[in-house]
Amino acid sequence: VACHCDPLCENLLDTGERMWIIDWEYSGMNDPMWDLGDLSVEGAFTPEQVGWATEAIDENLSALSPRAKRASADGDGAFIEDFCNWNRLPAMERFIKESPGAEIAAQLTGSDTIRLYHDHVLVKEPGTKQHTPWHQDQPYYNVDGVQNASMWFPVDPVARSATLEFIAGSHRGPWYMPRTFLDDEAKWFPDGALAELPDFSAEPERWRVLGWELEPGDAVFFNMLTVHGAGGVSGVNRRRVLSVRFLGDDMAHAPRRWTTSPPFDGLDAEIPDGAPMDHPLFPMLWTRADGLVAKA
């Protein structure tokens, strides 16, 4: 579709009666995700594929890895996260390699190839009040580039109040200070090294918030630099999510001075700075020539 391709706040003028979009220098045909930074995809996954993801999450919860952590207080419901388990959980590997997620990521990023970066299980048990604070994923990672997509795939119905929300257009930058979810610590960069997150709620006319009520089989895709967050889970509802991060054509290794999340210990010695993520930890999932690699 026709896109502006540079939707910074400075290019949106609100007169109180009409919104004007200026500076069309970079406009052209593109995917709408380029302007918004996130996109909801409804019903693209079959019930069987939802079953694979459900099995993967439940197996992961029953045997957490050393990377797992609780992101909620002891007196709150459990908010559990775990990372990088695809190569020990067959159901997770099958979901990642055989479901349409990689192909959708290729379409959204305009890539000829899609690799896996990592899997991320996020589960909020019933009654968990802990919010997932606004944040970007990119500052935690050891990759650079723009052709990337994160998929947030719930296997339970998700109410609008508990869904993942996004600040539209925030994938254009800048980087904001990453902090720990539970205690708001700046563990990756020194305080003052990056801009702090704006108070998005104070200027709703400037910061457009996107979010969708979701059913099993739906997914949300977003750029790694898009600011996002989520509410707690009320009542008896459970919110189990398998998130998969995909790497497109221009994504390259970017060794960091800080410990990334998730960490990839020893990778700096195996992949040069600036090189493609050609490594068994990051298998090729889809190519434009052959489609899904697992089915080629």
Please provide a written account of the structure:
By secondary structure, the chain is an alpha+beta fold. The protein contains 4 helices and 19 strands. A hairpin with a 3-residue loop joins strand 18 and strand 19 (291-292). Helix 2 packs antiparallel against helix 3. The chain is globular. The protein starts with a strand and ends with a strand.
Describe the structure using short key phrases:
globular; 4 helices; single chain; 26% strand; 9-stranded antiparallel β-sheet; alpha+beta; 296 residues
Query: Can you summarize the main beta sheet?
Result: 9 strands, antiparallel
Please trace the helix and strand order, writing H or E for each element. EEEEHEHEEHHEEEEEEEEEEEE
User: What percent strand?
Assistant: 25-35%
For the record, give the distance between the C-alpha atoms at the N and C termini, rounded to a whole number. 31 Å
Quickly give the structural class: alpha+beta
SS elements, strand count? 19
Which spans have pLDDT < 50 for at least 5 consecutive residues?
Answer: none
Rg of Cα set: 19 Å
Helix content: 10-25%
What's the number of helices?
Answer: 4
What is the overall shape? globular
- What is the residue-averaged pLDDT? 90
List the quaternary state of the chains: single chain
Question: What topology does this entry show?
Answer:
Elements: E1 2-3, E2 12-14, E3 19-21, E4 28-29, H1 33-36, E5 38-41, H2 47-62, E6 69-70, E7 79-83, H3 90-98, H4 101-109, E8 113-124, E9 132-135, E10 143-144, E11 148-154, E12 164-167, E13 209-211, E14 219-222, E15 228-230, E16 239-247, E17 252-253, E18 284-287, E19 291-292
Antiparallel strand pairs: 1-4, 2-3, 5-14, 6-7, 7-8, 8-16, 8-18, 9-15, 10-17, 11-14, 11-16, 12-13, 12-15, 18-19
